[in-house]
Specification:
29 strands, about 40% helix
């Protein structure tokens, strides 16, 4: 003991001298052997002595020191007896083969914000790391030089509006003149029609006059013919009268006969006079008809003159109407021209107003500011970037995957991504793109998963771990990966590269209900994700395999599950060297076991009591697996994970146990209960559309 104390003091003294030289102090007897150094050395020696005394005084009789216990544990072989192991059942369900790579989060888009007009930055409060919304005002420019232009453009719009009003008034006046000219044209057309009617009437009268003239001339001819007949008859009677007068004188005829002849002669004279009167009347009719004919000719001539005059007026009025219409069309085009000027002025005003609006620089995307390139007070021009923004909703998670794994990854494969915060649960997403080319130097390609990142959990450049699925089997046998052991097969070479997989299968032993015998079984594995391993052949569903405690097993050995060991007490036979947690037992150390109090023992038993566990995934096809097997009377914990939004399974309900729990997306939710009786226990979604069952045996 005293030798150890002396050696310790020498070591402390040497360390003190070393530190003094390293810190630049003078190493002299006076500097070393001062009150502080000697006091410190004595204090440390005292503490060491007290520690050694306490270990010797309070250590239980027969107990080994920690160094002795470690030496014995490493050199002493395991005692014979029942070995404590952890067992797991061969189950049927989903197994996914995954590869794990480190990667980083990359912004979905990275944009630089540019001003559209020149101006001085008078306000820009954003810095790197600030989050912005789409359309949010990022900066403001000085607009004092734009305001006069806006006022000028607005005045131009007012002037153009006045011009449109004047043009419309002129158009209305031109339309009124067109209507008036058309009314006058109608009056002239009426006069032309009237002149044509008069011409037709005069021509009709002329035709009547010509007919009357023809008739009068016929009457003159008839009258002259009658006149000639009457004169011929009168000449006959005059000659007869002369002969009769001679005969009267001679007395050849009587006077009565002579008078009768005279009467006939007078009658002939009357007929001559009558015929002369008829001739005179017929000639008067001819003259009247000729006069009427001349009048009709005059009327025809007057009507034709009137028609010519009216036609000339009609042509002139048509020309006036066309002129008024042309003036109206010109006025209408002036309206269009004025409107075009108004639109041009409005466009100029809009351009000036837009330029004023461009003084507010807005974010084109929702994201986070990654770099502030300029500061307020700087004169900027279009094309000169002021900020850089990265869009993080969604965000791209990228990993450089080795060429050997790249060919096994498909678009749509499930990805489990984690950040560096161990308290955060992983997120589940899918592979959205795979690079079509491989880097010739690193022989890797980029695999990308697009994550909505609604909670802004990932930021650009953040380190992420991605577990990428390379294959999934829905209904296959699987065991925990920890249960799979490998051995090297002899090959005759210096170092063999051939390996074989096997597991330790535990079968119920004949000597006790809670004891098993173990034997190694060769099996062929398939997909594996580090937690579950697919079994292609060699095992059957329900068999028990050793997960932990296989180090000292031998074929035909007896084991007991760790949960039953803790719940039912120590097995008969020699005490175990160590339990499943790797802690030493009292018998292994030779120490006397200190009895625990009753409450502590009960707490330990409750904590270590056997609990049944199962996992159920909710996918597009429903519950996977749809049936879970449990034992009656043993507490059970079923963990549900909802992996889709395409179903109604936002909650899970156990009607028989009055249990109802919400299932958030991609978050495990545990339902704890104790099966009361054998049979089937149904669990459903909230709408009773998706159904599963627990088979209690």
């Amino acid at each position: 003991f005293y030798l150890a104390v002396g050696i310790l003091l020498l070591l402390l003294l040497g360390f003190t001298l070393y530190r003094m030289r390293r810190t630049g102090q003078q190493v002299t007897p006076k500097a070393v052997l001062n009150r502080q150094v000697i006091g410190g050395l004595l204090l440390m020696a005292l503490m060491f002595a007290v520690s050694v005394w306490a270990v010797g005084a309070f250590r239980r009789k027969g107990a080994m020191t920690p160094i002795e216990g470690q030496a014995m544990e490493m050199s002493t072989p395991a005692p014979p007896g029942v070995t404590t192991v952890e067992l797991a059942a061969v189950e049927r369900g989903e197994v996914a083969n995954t590869v794990s790579y480190t990667g980083s989060a990359v912004a979905n888009t990275e944009v630089k914000v540019y001003p559209r007009v020149a101006g001085w930055i008078e306000w820009m409060p954003l810095y790197a790391g600030d989050r912005v919304r789409k359309g949010q005002v990022l900066a403001r420019l000085d607009t004092s030089q734009v305001e006069p232009e806006v006022a000028e453009r607005r005045a131009g719009v007012n002037m153009a509006q006045q011009g449109v009003g004047v043009a419309r008034q002129e158009h209305r006046q031109a339309l009124s003149q067109v209507n008036q000219a058309r009314a006058e044209l109608g009056a002239v057309q009426g006069a032309v029609e009237e002149a044509r009617a008069n011409l037709d009437a005069a021509q009709e009268e002329r035709r009547n006059a010509e007919a009357q003239l023809t008739a009068a001339r016929s009457e003159v001819t008839d009258a002259r013919a009658q006149m000639q007949a009457a004169r011929a008859d009168l000449a006959y009677w005059e000659e007869r009268i002369e002969r009769m007068r001679t005969l009267v004188k001679e007395g050849a005829v009587s006077r009565e006969e002579f008078q009768q002849e005279q009467a006939q002669a007078e009658t002939a004279r009357a007929k001559v006079r009558q015929a002369q009167a008829a001739i005179n009347g017929a000639q008067a009719g001819v003259r009247a008809a000729q006069a009427q004919l001349r009048k009709s000719d005059a009327m025809i001539q007057a009507a034709r003159t009137k028609i010519r005059q009216s036609n000339a007026g009609l042509i002139a009025q048509h020309a006036q109407v066309r002129s008024m219409q042309a003036a109206a069309e010109t006025a209408r085009k002036r309206i269009e021209q004025a409107k075009a000027g108004e639109e041009q002025s409005r466009a100029a005003l809009g351009g000036a107003t837009t330029a004023r609006g461009y003084a507010e620089i807005r974010s084109p995307v929702e994201g986070v500011v990654t770099e502030r390139l300029l500061s307020p007070g700087v004169l900027v021009n279009p094309g000169q970037a002021v900020l850089e923004i990265a869009e993080i909703r969604p965000i791209r998670l990228q990993a450089n995957v080795a060429e050997t794994d790249l060919n096994r990854i498909q678009v749509g494969a499930r990805v489990l991504a984690r950040d560096q915060d161990p308290k955060q649960p992983p997120i589940v997403t899918k592979v959205t793109s795979i690079t079509p080319a491989v880097d010739p130097r690193s022989r890797t390609g980029i695999v990308e998963a697009l994550h909505p990142n609604r909670d802004a959990r990932f930021v650009p450049g953040e380190f992420v771990t991605m577990e990428i699925s390379t294959g999934v089997k829905e209904d296959t046998l699987w065991i925990p990966t920890r249960a799979v052991r490998t051995e090297t097969l002899p090959s005759g070479r210096i170092q063999s590269t051939q390996t074989s997989a096997y597991v330790w299968v535990a079968e119920p032993a004949a000597g006790g209900e809670s004891e098993y015998t173990v034997r190694p079984v060769n099996e062929k594995t398939g997909l594996s994700n580090g937690v579950k391993t697919e079994i292609l052949f060699g095992l059957e569903e329900g068999q028990q395999v050793v997960v932990e405690g296989y180090q000292n097993l031998r074929e035909g050995g007896t084991v007991r599950p760790i949960r039953e060991m803790l719940a039912g007490g120590a097995p008969p036979g020699p005490p175990e060297r160590a339990d499943a947690a790797g802690e030493k037992s009292a018998a292994a150390t030779g120490e006397e076991e200190t009895p625990k109090s009753a409450p502590a023992q009960e707490t330990s038993k409750e904590a270590a009591a056997a609990v049944q566990t199962a996992s159920v995934s909710l996918t597009d096809q429903g519950y996977q697996p749809a049936s879970v097997s449990l034992r009656q009377g043993v507490p059970a914990r079923i963990t549900f994970v909802r992996k889709t939004d395409a179903t109604c399974g936002q909650e899970v309900v156990f009607p028989e146990y009055n249990i109802k729990k919400d299932l958030p997306l991609n978050e495990p939710v545990t339902v704890a209960f104790t099966p009361k009786k054998t049979g089937e226990v149904k669990f459903t979604c909230g709408m009773d559309m998706l159904r599963g069952k627990v088979v209690v045996r």
